[in-house]
Amino acid sequence: MALVLIGILFPLTIGIIVIAELTWTYHALVTLTRQGAHYAAATCFQDDAGSNVVAWMEANAPPFLDQSQLGGAIQIQVNYWTLDQTDGLTIQFDSSACAGTNSPQCVPDAVTVGISGYQFRQLLPAIGLPPITVPAFSTTVEMESGGGDPETGTCNPEAGTSS
Question: What is the residue extent of each domain of the chain?
């Protein structure tokens, strides 16, 4: 009976715990990209790298075991897109027309927020297994208000972020 517990049930229990932690972490990362994309769509465009979006995501990440990897091993990418009126294709947003201003007219058509470089390490080294590299993934949404107030012609960087 003791051999059954040690040989079968213990590894099975550890496996279930690792899979549960991996699923929880993956769900947290997916939620983080969705929330980041929504934040980027509802706030002012500030720079091509989306530094305001990255900072917001790092500060407002849902709880998960490897949060310390944010800003380090976990890379957050933010890309802004616009519709090319001549051929109807989506192209990288050209911010040179914005000239460093946060005007409501300087609003891209869509934003993509992605995460890459995450390696799940919980419990795996303890049982002699290598970390699991989670594939890169992203969320793309159309811009919403972009933080612009059409009545005043100003851009509020925190508009639309209360949800």
Answer: 2-155
Please give the Cα distance from 35 to 153 (Å, whole number).
26
Percentage of the chain surpassing pLDDT 70? 83
Find the angle CA(115)-CA(116)-CA(118) to the nearest 5 degrees: 105
Give the angle 7-13-15 at the CA atoms, nearest 5°.
95
Convert the chain into a string of H (helix), E (strand) and C (coil). Answer: CHHHHHHHHHHHHHHHHHHHHHHHHHHHHHHHHHHHHHHHHHCCCCCCCCHHHHHHHHHCCCCCCCHHHECCCEEEEEEEEEECCCCCCEEECCHHHHCCCCCCCCCCCEEEEEEECCEECCCCHHHCCCCEECCCEEEEEECCCCCEECCCCEECCCCCCCC
Which of 154, 55, 142 has its CA nearest to residue 106?
154
Residue 33 · residue 139 · CB < 8 Å: yes
Whole-prediction pTM:
0.80
